[in-house]
Each structure stands twice: as C-alpha cells, then as structure tokens.
Design a protein that fits this description.
alpha+beta, globular
Length: about 260
Amino acid sequence: MKTNFNYLDSLREEISLGHHEADQIVAQAKSNYTYLKAPNGRPTKLCLEDWILVRTKAFKEKFGDWETAYKKRFLLYHEAVKQLSGNEFEKQAGKTLTEQVSKYFESIGGLAHSPLFGDVVLDRKGAEDSFRHGVGRSKAIAFAAVKEVIETGILIDYHDNHKGRGYDTAVLSAPIDIRKERFICYIVVHRRKNFNRFYLHEVWTEKSLTSVRSNAVQRQPSHLQGTAKVLQDIVCASTLPENFFDENGEPRLDGCE
C-alpha cells in the first residue's frame, strides 16, 4: 500500500479538531463490541487516533472501502474454518435431526466463544429455531460448523434492539467446505444482557452469491433476504491488494505500534 502521509497527517489533525465523525465511529463500535478491534476480532494494532482515522468516510474515499474489501477476501479466499465430509447428521432410525444436533452441541460443551461477544450458548432451542427457518441437506450438515463460524468468523451485520424485541442480533460469517465444495455460512446470534445464544444459520455456495445472473437471494424467504443481500454485496464488492492489510485485516500504516 502506497500511503500519502501528508494527507493522513492532515486528516489526523481534522479528527483531533472534531471535523470528522469520530464520536459516531466510536459510539457505533462500542455498541456492537468492535471498539478497538480489528476485523478478525482481535485487538487492533493501531493507536486509537489511527483506528478512528481508517474508518472515516474521507479515508475510505481516498484509499477504498477496506472494511468491505477485507470481508470479501476473508469469505472468498480464507482457508475454510471447518472441513465437513457430508456424512454429518445422516438419518438415524428413532432419532430426529433436532435430537442429533442437540446431542452434538452437548458433546462439544454447549458453548462457542466469540472473540467479540464471549460465550454463545449452543442448545436444542437454537437448533429448533434454525430448523423453523427451513432446512436442506447442506444446512443440516453445516450444524457441525456452527461453533467454528462463531469462534473464527467475521462480523458482517449487527442490529441493536432487533425489531424492538429487546435483544440485539449479530451476524457472523465464515467459509466452510462440504464434500470439498466451498460454502459461505452465516450465523445469527441473539444477544441479551449477559447472555448470547445461537439462533439461526444458513449456507450458500460461492457461485450462488458471486454470479451476477444469480437470483438465489430473491428466491429466499423475505425474512432471510436481508442478510443474504449483505453477503452478496460483500462478495461482489471491489477488491484491494493483499499487502494493503496487516495480519488482522486493517490498513498498514506507519506511526503506531
């Protein structure tokens, strides 16, 4: 990344004088638990001033929408966070799919740990909620990747007080492999005070999201189209070179340890 440091110094000065949306950036990040976090959920390597700077509209207009570009790179090119054989949760006499998934969640401790939100409960209720939104074979198999997507996925969407229901919703996403085919999985987590619970997951093939002729999003039930459109916008966004990013997914800048 070739950086115009005179421009950055000027932008830093404007931020310090309150000429940019610093307060709004900080407030939003504190609301969705991304304050001083990099896109991969780890602590930022930027100082506070530069952490704010790279998230301003002015910076993105100058250098590109790096946050969306990083999400695209992660979803399309990052190593799959879980390899699935395709034999997971096959039909068993006398056992429903819900029972199989519930038992699996119990076997892995009933929790996933998000670097952003902490522990997320994996239980029978979550399995039932996800089933109620429809289930095909690929989605059923992907129940075995829910823990990994929560623990290593990236945040792609967040809603405070979702539809006025008294809880927040966070959407985490990551690539997985099913039968050596790449899928993009997203997880919806319900967040209440001091409690997070897995609520829903869906899976998409890369082709269904990246093909400009694909109408897969429009074929989805209306309650799922919003997140599907977010994913589609990410994977169809402009790219930035790999060396633009540090190991945590933020722009490389000099001047901060």
